[in-house]
Amino acid sequence: MTVKVYNTLSREKEIFETNGQTVSMYVCGPTVYNYIHIGNARVFVFFDVVRRYLANLGYKVTYVQNFTDVDDKLIKASIETGKSVAQIAEEYTDAYFADMDALGVHRADIHPKATEHIGQMIDAIATLIKKGKAYEVNGDVYFRTLRQDGYGKLSHQSVEDLQSGARVEVNEIKEHPFDFALWKRAKEGEISWNTPWGKGRPGWHIECSVMAKEYLGDTLDIHAGGVDLCFPHHENEIAQSEALNDKPFVRYWMHNGFINMDNEKMSKSLGNVMRVFDMRKMYSAKAIRYFLLSAHYRNPINFTNEVMNQAEQSVERLQTSVDNLRHRQQTSLSGEVPNELTAQLEQLSVQFAEAMNDDFNAANGITVLFEAVRTANEWLSKPVLSKESIHSLLDWFTIYGEQVLGLVDTNAETVLEGQIEKLIEERQSARKQRNFQRADEIRDQLLHAGILLEDTPQGVRWKKK
Fold first, then answer.
1. What note does UniProt attach to the cofactor annotation (predicted)?
2. For residue 170, is pLDDT > 90?
3. 28: annotated binding-site residue?
4. Which pick of 136, 226, 327, 368 has the fewest CB atoms within 10 Å?
């Protein structure tokens, strides 16, 4: 079956083709100055599924996701807290991994950091200056957007349209309002590196171009991120990368939609930004992942408590079906797999592939997952069901529900009542030792088993959902 992907560059669904069975994939990672919010998480969860599905199809995927560990936000946080930029970046990089590990996001093959590639950035900027595509003014270096044919092609606007419709930074030293910074002169006391243009630090856009080239080459198969990155970040990446390499930068551009909070846009000004760190205290990790995959990735998705409660019920229903199969497997006898069941599973596999091959429609893939639950429940209602039949059903859930979507655990252990107090004690000990990652893992384990924890002045209380 052919995979089709919506390419932001062409604004059309295109047949997905690569050189052989390899895929190079770059997803813009977080700026590690604070905890990530649920909008960030949508990027990482969805493209985790894209990567998983391509691997399921037999592609060898090289997945790169960067960390921006130096920029204005980190410098501001450094000034406010008295911590170094490096300390803040390390703290929130660890926090990112704690959040994403909990949500089942597989770590990238490579997680490059901007500060580890300063030399390559300086070399790239020097090359752009030599080519006449960039210029230096008082220690700042800017890219000449008018010297690069096709600027605006990703956001599908001409330079004239962009200039009339966008808010452009006023800067008298730039040759053109849309010229963007490749290198920024350091202010007093700021983190900086020595360059031919004086001390300074990289601009945001050059980081991704250089790191993508370093690990994936001049032309990538997939470059992805939130729709807010389309302009100016990705637009500027295309311009500087194609000016640098004289080759097309990316074959397929993919962008996911926004998350709204109670039908309002999530923004700091409205005070409705929801951090994943906080969400994990209220909802199970599987429910958060389910919510993020429950609408087509290019569409906006609306967060409400009601929606999250429904997500909890949905993942519980999925996991209960798998747990029932595993429980029945313990007492079932060997026997043949009925042809009817084999045909049903094959049809479900076809339906799942049709969903995912149509622009990675994970939401429709989830619908097929529930069809599989209905099928499993029908067979479980029969008085006799062979061990091999149950194995076939569990295999299906393992491939599509666990390995691709990451929504069920086919080897999950049920927490017995006698273990709950022991786990709570371990969690309390981990918190005292400031091992918050382990404490969160225990809380998520109990939540997944239907055990809610409540921290009170009198100690930790638990109850069943």
1. Binds 1 zinc ion per subunit.
2. no
3. yes
4. 327
Helix, strand, or coil (residue 313): helix
208 is in an annotated binding site: yes
Residues 6 or more apart whose CB falls under 8 angstroms from that of 415 comprise: 423, 445, 446, 449, 451
pLDDT tens digit sequence for 195-212? 999 999 999 999 999 999
Measured between alpha carbons, how far is 131 from 236 in angstroms, rounded to an integer? 17
Q: Is there a single domain that holds both residue 125 and residue 239?
A: yes
Residue 34: which of 96, 83, 124 has the closest Cα?
Answer: 96
Q: Is 237 flagged in the annotation as binding?
A: yes
Query: What CATH code is carried by the domain that includes residue 322?
Result: 1.20.120.640
Indicate the angle between helix axes 305-329 and 387-396, nearest 10 degrees: 150
76 is in an annotated binding site: no
Looking at the fold, whether 157 and 211 belong to one and the same domain comes out as yes
Q: Quick check: 413 pLDDT over 80?
A: no
Q: What share of the chain is helix, strand, coil (3-state, %, to 5)?
A: 50, 15, 35
Question: In this predicted structure, which of 227-241, 324-338, 440-454 has the lowest mean pLDDT?
Answer: 440-454
Whether residues 140 and 241 share a domain: the answer is yes
Beta strands in 16-129 (DSSP E): 22-27, 60-65
Assign residue 320 a region (left: φ > 0; alpha: ψ between -120 and 50; beta: otherwise).
Answer: alpha
pLDDT, one tens digit per residue, over 426-456 is 888 888 888 888 888 888 778 766 677 877 7
Residue 140: give the domain boundaries: 4-256
- Least confidently predicted of 12-16, 102-106, 268-272, 277-281: 268-272
User: Quick check: is 238 in a domain?
Assistant: yes
Helix orientation angle between 38-56 and 285-293, rounded to the nearest 10 degrees: 80
Q: What is the rounded distance in angstroms from the CA atom of residue 376 to the CA atom of residue 382?
A: 10
Q: What is the pLDDT of residue 409?
A: 93
Residue 263 lies in a domain: no
For the chain, what is the domain count?
3
Give the separation between CA 28 and CA 223, rounded to whole angstroms.
8
Tell me, yes or no, whether 336 and 422 share the same domain: no
* Residue 205 in tokens: 């856009």
* 378 among annotated binding-site residues: no
Beta strands in 174-281 (DSSP E): 180-185, 200-202, 220-226, 250-256, 259-261, 264-265
Cα separation, 427 vs 442, whole angstroms: 6
Could you give the 3-state DSSP secondary structure of residue 248?
coil
What pLDDT, on a 0 to 100 scale, did the predictor assign at position 163? Answer: 62
**Which of 241, 256, 271 is where one domain is finished?**
256
Instruction: Go through 128-139 and write b for each residue having 16 or more CB atoms within 10 A of its CB, e for each that does not.
Output: bbeeebbbbeee
